[in-house]
Write a structure and sequence with these properties.
This is Lipoprotein. By secondary structure, this protein is α/β, with parallel strands linked by helices. It has a domain of 98 residues. Helix content is 14%, strand content 24%. A five-stranded mixed sheet has the order 1-5-6-7-2. Strands 3-4 form a two-stranded antiparallel ribbon. Strands 8-9 form a two-stranded antiparallel sheet. A hairpin with a 2-residue loop joins strand 6 and strand 7. The longest helix is centred in the middle third of the chain and has 10 residues. It is elongated and about 80 Å long. It starts with 5 loop residues before the first strand and ends with a helix.
Length: 162
């Protein structure tokens, strides 16, 4: 069962604990509450908790607003996995943690295949400053038909007899 988890970040209502390596919970504690499917990249709650019911998605979509409730001009949404009120995790880093049993080393980041794809097959560990290798998009076979139309005189050419 999935639901749309939206968390609006304002100046007064901020995400408290976005963790990477600092003060990260042990993997066994996270796995007791959150399940990860490496094939699809889905994070779901394993047990009923205050964040959600068992089977619901543990990924929350966050968007930035100002204190008046208006979206910022460069509003973008990003996703985080919510363990509890004080523990939010980057899904790609958390997927790397689930697959390898340890956090990515310092001065590295985890790149993925496509946007919002957290499957284990698409994860790449990158040194900070380098761009990931692009993932090939699935090929779609299609035929392009072009029909040429005989050129005709325009409105003004006909109007002025050119």
């Amino acid at each position: 069962m999935k639901r749309a988890n939206i968390f609006t970040v304002t100046e007064n209502y901020k995400i408290k604990g976005v963790k990477d390596r600092r003060n990260a919970l042990p993997l066994a504690d996270i796995q007791a509450r959150i399940a990860y499917d490496p094939a699809t990249g889905d994070f779901t709650y394993r047990i009923d908790c205050t964040m959600g019911k068992a089977g619901e998605t543990a990924i929350w979509r966050c968007r930035r607003m100002d204190c008046a409730g208006t979206p910022y001009e460069s509003t973008r949404q990003w996703e985080l996995v919510k363990y509890d009120e004080n523990h939010w995790y980057d899904p790609r880093k958390l997927a790397f943690y689930f697959v390898n049993g340890e956090w990515p080393p310092t001065n590295t980041w985890v790149a993925g295949g496509r946007k919002y794809d957290y499957s284990a097959a698409g994860l790449q560990l990158m040194v900070t400053g380098k761009l990931p290798t692009p993932q090939p998009e699935p090929r779609k076979d299609f035929v392009v038909e072009t029909n040429t139309v005989a050129s005709t005189k325009g409105f003004f050419a006909r109007l002025f007899g050119l």
